[in-house]
Amino acid sequence: MENLEEYRKAGKIAGQVREYSRELVKPGAKLFDIAEKIEAKIIELGGQIAFPVNLSLNQFAAHCTPVQGDDIVLKDEIIKVDVGVHVDGFVGDTAHTIDLSGKNAELVKASEEALKAAIEAVKQDKSIGEIGKAIQETINGFGFAPIKNLSGHGLDQYVVHDAPTIPNYDTGNMNKLDKEQVIAIEPFATTGTGKVKDSSNPMIYSQIEIKPIRDMFARKVLKEIEQYNGLPFATRWLAKKFPLNQLRFALSRLVREGILRDYPPLPEVAGGLVSQTEHSLYIGKEIEVLTK
Ligand code: CO
Q: Is 33 a catalytic residue?
């Protein structure tokens, strides 16, 4: 496959940064500092940031990243660390869950084992539905529910969520995975009912349209955003250049204009705790886990 070396490099860095996060995620640590250190590590290791590191606590499954002024200090949370690295746009995507309470080891293990079962199903060339089934049955076996409206996905150059969709449950999809592609598989396990919803206060956005904007400040913000090449970015990054309140106003205006999309935090609908484990895989003659 073309660009496999870039995918390998991005995947390797993503895996290293995920493991590095274990040193940072400790009671008493500030979430803001953890995010900044994780993203700095990506650059230090020679990668680029494919999306803002997602640090999602407790019932939040994904799309949380700190912002200036929120001052969250870790205590006894269950925290998902989802890291995205790119090399020339080719993305490595990986996640793990750290339980600081000491009470949710089984929930963490459920998504870890589900990912192993899914990779095994991929190696056996099972259908997409059967991959989802392996995830679902493993998580159910621990007494938890898979989150059905989150899924794994294909990866492409400057695209984090591409086709195909890799479900976290048995959808009955009989299709097999095409060869010569890179995908991410990400089981989510929850003590809740198995569904997430959009909430408010997005901290992550991406540009989806190139269009002129009249407002001068919004135009200045958009100029900064162009460097991300359509990949997701954090309010936190831009707040280093622009006053936060004005920036928030401009970002929501750009969403209304259809130039940006937002990624609001995703809590589990019943408020259940959530764990997540994710690897990126190369689907070739052999299956290669890129984010080990
Ligand atoms: Co992913």
A: no
CA 84 – ligand 1 centroid, Å: 8
* Residue 71 is a catalytic residue: no
| Of 6, 36, 137, 161, catalytic | 161
153 is catalytic: yes
Answer for the pair 91, 268: CB distance below 8 angstroms, yes or no. Answer: no
**Whole-model pTM?**
0.97
CA 214–ligand 1 middle distance (angstroms)? 35
pLDDT of residue 73: 98
d(CA 220, CA 223): 5
Which neighbouring-strand residues pair with 49?
A: 85
Nearest to 275 by CA among 128, 85, 122, 144: 144
Q: For residue 169, what pLDDT is reported?
A: 98
- Would you state the pLDDT for residue 228? 96
Half-sphere exposure (Cβ direction) of 93: Cα atoms closer than 13 Å: 31
Token reading at 123: 């190696």
The answer to whether residue 93 is catalytic is: yes
| CB neighbour list of residue 195: distance below 8 Å, 6 or more residues apart | 147, 148, 149, 268, 269, 270
